[in-house]
Design brief:
Length: 150
Amino acid sequence: MSFLHKILRPGHVVLDLDVSSKKRVFEQVGLLAENDYQIARSKVTDSLFDREKLGSTGLGQGVAIPHGRIKGLKEAVGIFVRLKAAIPFDAPDGKPVQLLFVLLVPDHASELHLQILGELAELFCSRALREQLLQSADPGQVYRMLSGQE
């Protein structure tokens, strides 16, 4: 069963974000979550950094899936970010990251969290999809690709 169409909103596709570090990406995601879910941005950034301390969420091939548990969040939230330029992310292949799918889950959602992470990892294995995500100028099209509507 696909979870991505349930957790990703059209307004949560950010293309060509101009940042130079993980910190800046996480701050921007925190701001978006704060505006849309009334969750303090510091909770989001702290949660994402806490997870990164355990090991990089970079998958390789220019993709990362930063994720964190957020106390007070009612349901899982996905935010797709394509960076204007790739940034270092300590991925296993050593390549910088340009495509990120940030996953925020309620602090009690362990099984759902793992199912969504598995679905994301499988999705980003597709070289064709990664190339389409890098080339598309239309956030709506990117949303449809990721949510299985295209």
